[in-house]
Amino acid sequence: MPRDPRYDILFQPVKIGPVTARNRFYQVPHCNGMGRAYPSSMAAMRRTKAEGGWAVICTEEIEIHHSSDHSPWMGGRLWEDRDIPVHARMCDAIHEFDSLAGAELNYAGMMAANRYCREAPMAPSPIPVATHDPLQARQMDRSDIRNLRRWHIDAAKRAQKAGYDIIYVYAGHQLSTISHFLSPYRNRRSDEYGGSLENRARLLREVLADTKDAVGDTCAVALRFSVDELMGDMGFTSDGEGRDLIEMLAEIPDLWDINISAWENDSATSRFKPEGFQNDYVSFVKQVTSKPVVGVGRFTSPDTMASLVKNGVLDFIGAARPSIADPFLPKKIEEGRVDDIRECIGCNICVSGDSNFVPIRCTQNPTMGEEWRRGWHPESIAPKTSDETVLIVGAGPAGLECARALGQRGYTVTLTDKAPNLGGRALLESRLPGLIEWRRVTDHRIQQIQQMTNIDAYQHSEMTAQSILEFGADHVVLATGAKWVATGIGREMPKGIPIAEGARVFTPDDVHSGTTLTGPVVIFDDDHYYMGGIVAEKLRGDGLDVTYVTPAAEVSSWTQYTLEQRAIQARLLKLGVRIATAHSLSDIRKQSVVLSCVYTSEQREIDCGSCLLVTMRAPVDTLFAELEGADLKSLSRIGDCFAPSTIAAAVYSGHLHAREFGEPAIQGTPFRRELPALSDTFPGNT
Ligand code: ADP
Ligand code: SF4
Q1: CATH fold for the domain made of 484-618
Q2: Ligand 2, atom 3, residue with closest C-alpha
Q3: Are strands 100-106 and 56-63 parallel, antiparallel or unpaired?
């Protein structure tokens, strides 16, 4: 299909200093949990985005000097010339598709605890490091500042040698020493680098000039700056010093990469912020500079993108998450296939990879992070190896993705679900407060499946062991999901919680099915991801008196990895949900529950009309037990039916099954590994 002419503007080339981007799709820097540890994986991931049409592909943070290291986080490194080849591999891969490679150089200072190099971190003024390590950053003297400038120059030259086209000076997110100098609350100096904004911006101005002198003849120099820190008077605001700084340096960088900070604000989840949530903060920037401006806001709608450019808000459509969920987003717009875009759902599972020091993963895009180690491509897949047929029972995220991918391979697939709608838990959970975008997991796959004549999908179709056998498919895949247990069994109470006769006990599945709960409600969250917190929010929103109890130290504790924990706890507090952290539930009585302190075992009894348990899920796998040994070519379980986990894990499981289906079994480790290179010198082996 030809491209919609309304989107032509998105495909105009844009000049950035001495280089030119082939269109307006700009993958801004983003962490990926691979960096220096998995460089081939990282290069292949970025290459896929270049292939998918992103005109600019940037790295995550690259450490510029050994005296500031982010270990164990897996960013990039350009400490020495020896680091250049790793980056050259990625730049070459990006250049294969005529895209530009951008390097986000950074000296993290007090944001990094230097756990690897063991040097004392540096900061404009003495302050504890941000990581809660028992360590303080020392104040930089003038020679430290001179050194920092030199390290930036050296790293910029190395980046140029590696093949980068755009070199960043990073003053965003309060993650760089340059931003700490800018900060009115982190910089308490009284010399020419402290005090007025002009003074606090001196280092930034110097590093920009140094970088331009060093590489500006062939490389563009970009400035990444958080124009609003959402801290009011405590930090930069877009109508205060944020704006003043941009006016002050307006024409110095070749490109402004603008966002809001801290990172959890910049990468806000869809539960808290809609598409375009940064527009109000950044829309003034183009009025005060003639240089190109890139901004972000989880943009997935081409109409929104085109209107941002037409209305003079942005020159480039910046994206981290939308490019992760769909590396081929630009190409799909270019080819008139807008309906095929796999839209980001704003869940931040991608961030959780980086937070846990493992390669990136994505709920919507199961191939993300697997481009090199498994050789997976987001748009193509090996054709079928036989004409055998497949019946998939259960059309949640796992079943839908398995059907979609098997269908793409050319297999004849029947997908059934007993529910009135396809979608399983993704559909049910998308009805919880703020999770409407999660429907995209379901909608995208149903839309894709509907276009394939080799897939038949049926709702309202409960399958039994007998009807499955009667159906006569060669292969049966069970994707029947999991149910929350109402016993309290979980991490904290492995034997379950004693429940008195007549006590009213519920689970999130009852919330999904619309069961009426009577207050006061006590929620026991031993799951620690979003579910406990979000049902508390929903039931409180329904007007019920809610107490949230968890053995953890904070609400929805795992959501720290998706950058949401503070926002979730703040929301519950504002709604008036009572919160009891560090407490277990030791007894559920008819009209009360007993809370037990996890440290002292001290107990207290509180009134309870309904007790809602969020502890663990049990696979719905009775069909497996009934069909094991039946006359089938294969019987498999995928997703939550096999091992309950995240929606991302269910999608991945469905995709993996489809990829492996009909292929020879892999012996040993089923993916490629990046092994550390052995040094040629070793004690006893000179
Ligand atoms: P997953 O996350 O693994 O995809 P879900 O719980 O989201 O799991 O989806 C499981 C789906 O399986 C639900 O939509 C449910 O209605 C469906 N299902 C469960 N048992 C049967 C069955 N016997 N026949 C048809 N569909 C079933
Ligand atoms: Fe978007 Fe979630 Fe994928 Fe991240 S993991 S890119 S937030 S869908």
Answers
A1: FAD/NAD(P)-binding domain (3.50.50)
A2: 362
A3: parallel
